[in-house]
Amino acid sequence: MPKIQANGVELYYELHGPESADVLVLSNGVFANTQSWVYQKPVLSRHFRLLLYDCRGQGQSEHPAGPYSMELHADDLKGLLDALGIARAHIGGISYGGEISLIFGYRYPAATKSVIAVSAVSQVDPLLRGIIEGWKITVALRDGEKFFWLTHTDNFSEGWIARNWAFLQASIPRYQALDFDAALCLLDSFLGLNITGELHRIQAPTLIVCGEKDALKPRQYAERIVREIPQAEFVLIPDAGHAVMWEKPEVLNSVILGFLLKQQPAAGNQ
User: Where are the alpha helices (DSSP H) in 157-218?
Assistant: First the structure.
């Protein structure tokens, strides 16, 4: 289980794929971990050196006392890349991890080959704030099952829930195993997100992806991000909710690969 000190915190990480390939970083959703990329890892690691990691407060990484901030997570990721000797990478992630990627893109342009933000926002509008404040109340009760029942309809589309109900119910123990103190730090960190005015600083090619049926962070957030970034392109994935990495993994993998392969220099220009 590889761990490394980065920016004053111990981070768990995994590296997959050919050592000579470009590095692709994928940052997790807020309560996810490296295992959440199960459908992406075997595909993307065939073409890229895939770096998965748990940010502070997540999974197998250190869970220090808060407060955290989204900027701190981006600084942690830069520390991880430095500790691993990686000068530049494609910086991607979903939801909370997508927001880390956006911040990394303008804080560390020299280390950023491209930015990929899936199911992400650049600010927290009132409806989203209300949802997350409700999450905080349930997390404070330290009842993982109640937290599951409150949040699963925010994270998945209705059709996917109907088709995967047994799988979802089986995930309740994972909710019960959450570090609730760290979870509150992560949620507070997200509620402090307000970076719309900084997005114009991202100069790297950028891919913004949203699920058509994302009820938690709907498409107007993605469209706002695209308007602010000079080299952004937008892909809307049909019939997918917030957790598009699980709901439409083949489509998401194809979209990411297509975007990244466009960034590769032609053989004659290398």
Answer: 158-163, 165-170, 172-176, 180-191
In a domain, 138, yes or no: no
Distance between CA 253 and CA 267 in Å, rounded?
A: 24
CATH at residue 60: 3.40.50.1820
Residue 205 has pLDDT above 50, yes or no: yes
Count of CB atoms situated within 10 Å of the CB of 91:
33
The one-character DSSP state at 265 is P
Cβ-based neighbours of 71, under 8 Å, separated by 6 or more: 103, 107
Q: Is residue 168 part of a domain?
A: no
Mean pLDDT throughout 145-164? 96
| Cα separation values, 158 from 44, 60, 152, 231, 259, Å | 28, 31, 10, 33, 29
Residue 60 lies in a domain: yes
Q: Note down the domain range covering 103.
A: 3-123+194-269
**Residue 26 belongs to a domain:** yes
What total number of domains does the chain contain? 1
CA distance 68 to 266: 41
With a CB cutoff of 8 Å and minimum separation 6, the contacts of 45 are 16, 17
Q: Which residue has the tokens 């990484």?
A: 61
pLDDT reading at 89 higher than 60: yes
Residue 270 has pLDDT above 50, yes or no: no
Mean pLDDT calculated for residue range 45-74: 97
How far is 12 from 49, CA to CA, in rounded Å? 16
In the block, tokens 């893109």 appear at 105
Q: CA nearest 229: which of 127, 126, 74, 122?
A: 122
* pLDDT band, residue 1 (cuts 50/70/90): low
